[in-house]
């Protein structure tokens, strides 16, 4: 698999094309901060933007897309239903509210944000209805482990197109990666640079020197060479641009293996089996 451009895409299990690389906007403030970040990303060639209802910045994301000059149909837009809405059985209403805030009449991908116990099955049925309506071009999940996926697949008619999870050199989750490949579910990485921890990992900084790249570029390249969609977050123009410069080199197999061996099963974010929100 050769990924040589920011415009390269993976084909999801329903035939939809999704860019391998995009911008995440977790914890980016609504208003000028998120609007500027999204505009810089689109100017730099990004064509995938990932937000969520709970991020509180859907309005700014939608405004930036409209003002960017990039046609909506060239942008792959993702958002997610929040846990409390699933508990209240408001998934369908939450979807409509996200569309209103984003000021768009469809989404490219709509995700269940977390596998809320006793709720995600009903939420998934609502997503299947949304997909059938044509208002979401693809539907998927986020933070699902193998047993969550097995349970969902046993009670659903549509296989999730995407599973967006925490993925980085300290949390490789090979069993989950292999399961998703077997089921034709595209794995997508959040927190790929470990909230900055990668800059303190000797093996990563050594590879950065070897390839004349930054530690971030090394890890983002590792992601896409694994066939994992990645959405690094940044609010700085230089970082947004820097993160795009991963398509002019390739990590050697032994260096991919070196990064794989850093796996500690160490999470930076919450445990999908033990969260209280």
TrEMBL record:
<dbReference type="InterPro" id="IPR020471">
    <property type="entry name" value="AKR"/>
</dbReference>
<protein>
    <submittedName>
        <fullName>2,5-didehydrogluconate reductase</fullName>
    </submittedName>
</protein>
<dbReference type="GO" id="GO:0016616">
    <property type="term" value="F:oxidoreductase activity, acting on the CH-OH group of donors, NAD or NADP as acceptor"/>
</dbReference>
<feature type="domain" description="NADP-dependent oxidoreductase">
    <location>
        <begin position="29"/>
        <end position="263"/>
    </location>
</feature>
<keyword id="KW-0560">Oxidoreductase</keyword>
<feature type="active site" description="Proton donor">
    <location>
        <position position="55"/>
    </location>
</feature>
<feature type="binding site">
    <location>
        <position position="113"/>
    </location>
    <ligand>
        <name>substrate</name>
    </ligand>
</feature>
<feature type="site" description="Lowers pKa of active site Tyr">
    <location>
        <position position="80"/>
    </location>
</feature>
<dbReference type="InterPro" id="IPR023210">
    <property type="entry name" value="NADP_OxRdtase_dom"/>
</dbReference>
<dbReference type="Pfam" id="PF00248">
    <property type="entry name" value="Aldo_ket_red"/>
</dbReference>
<dbReference type="InterPro" id="IPR036812">
    <property type="entry name" value="NAD(P)_OxRdtase_dom_sf"/>
</dbReference>
<dbReference type="InterPro" id="IPR018170">
    <property type="entry name" value="Aldo/ket_reductase_CS"/>
</dbReference>
<keyword id="KW-0521">NADP</keyword>
<dbReference type="InterPro" id="IPR044500">
    <property type="entry name" value="AKR5G"/>
</dbReference>
<comment type="similarity">
    <text>Belongs to the aldo/keto reductase family.</text>
</comment>
């Amino acid at each position: 698999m050769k990924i040589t451009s920011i415009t390269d895409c993976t084909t999801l299990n329903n035939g939809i094309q999704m860019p391998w690389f995009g911008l995440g906007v977790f914890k980016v403030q609504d208003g000028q901060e998120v609007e500027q970040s999204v505009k810089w990303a689109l100017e730099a060639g990004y064509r995938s933007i990932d937000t969520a209802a709970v991020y509180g910045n859907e309005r700014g994301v939608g405004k930036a897309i409209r003002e960017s000059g990039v046609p909506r149909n060239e942008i792959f837009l993702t958002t997610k239903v929040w846990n409390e809405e699933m508990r209240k059985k408001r998934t369908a209403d939450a979807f409509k509210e996200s569309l209103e805030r984003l000021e768009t009449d469809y989404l490219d991908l709509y995700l269940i944000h977390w596998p809320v116990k006793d709720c995600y099955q009903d939420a998934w049925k609502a997503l299947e209805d949304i997909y059938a309506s044509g208002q979401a071009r693809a539907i998927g999940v986020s933070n699902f482990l193998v047993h969550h996926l097995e349970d969902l697949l046993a009670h659903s008619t549509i296989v999730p197109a995407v599973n967006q999870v925490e993925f980085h050199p300290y949390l490789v989750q090979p069993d989950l990666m292999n399961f998703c490949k077997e089921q034709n579910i595209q794995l997508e990485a959040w927190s790929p640079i470990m909230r900055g921890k990668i800059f303190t990992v000797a093996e990563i900084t050594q590879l950065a020197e070897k390839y004349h790249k930054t530690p971030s570029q090394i890890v983002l390249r590792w992601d896409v060479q694994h066939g994992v969609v990645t959405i690094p977050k940044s609010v700085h123009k230089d970082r947004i641009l820097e993160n795009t410069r991963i398509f002019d080199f390739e990590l050697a197999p032994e260096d991919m293996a070196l990064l794989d061996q850093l796996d500690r099963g160490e999470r930076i974010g919450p445990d999908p089996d033990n969260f209280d929100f």
